[in-house]
Amino acid sequence: PSGTVAVKIVPTITSPEEADGFKLSHHHGDGGGTVAVKIVQGKASFYRQAQTEISILRQLNAADVHGHHVIRLQDAFMHGPHVCMVFPVLADSLYDLLLKTAFRGVSLHLVRKFGAQLLRSLQFIGSQGIVHTDLKPENVLLVHARRSGVRVIDFGSSCRESQSSTSSPAPCVYIQSRFYRSPEIMLGLPWGRPIDMWSLGCMLFELHEGRPLFNGNDEAEQLALLNSSLGCTPSQEQIASMPADKRERFFKLDGNAASGGSYKLRCPHPQRARPSLEGRLLKCMHSRHATGEAS
Question: What SS3 class is residue 22?
């Protein structure tokens, strides 16, 4: 009948625990198409963050007149207590791409293509005062299966830089997956846009090598890997200013603080050594991250 819409739901999930999205095929008259719908659970904290995600995406999409590789939000609506966001259907994630190579990695030529787009995207996102906070291969999708164009997705943990931490861990719900987590997040130090650059550096290495750059089993091992690769630790002043739980977890006081004792990493060396070439690449990445460069 006139005015009706026929809908077909095509599941894209394999278990109830992963039930946060589906494809929706709709047909209205002679038109129609397929969209991806992200569903956010109807809990108060999730609702607030979903509204922030919608606001950030609308801001980015409105400002993105030249194409900066950011996913476009087509619509948003409520279904009962759940926030639903509508996006175009894209192809595989870069993690899926690695999976298809059996984690052997992709060519340096292709990594350069991805890197140029992601640098452009981060520069644009940063110019809008936004920190993505969860850049990783799973959150970058190919536009077409056989082409190298990509889109940055999942701004569900993002925040405005004015809301990022200047003295304590941030108000954002989740800050960076462990393999891509920057030192300042692990240590509870002030942070901002440069944490996205850190994640990007880790991700580009992984795309080429097929394995994470820092693959610690926990944050203590992550810090040990950083220490052995970059040869740098926080200053004594930074350690003293850390939240007490972070300081006690990662550092031990060598001597008495009142008599000039110093803090040292509890676990300064990982069990696995890093190749020398990897170390040189890491030092270059560390230099870029320290200055917050995005291009």
Answer: strand
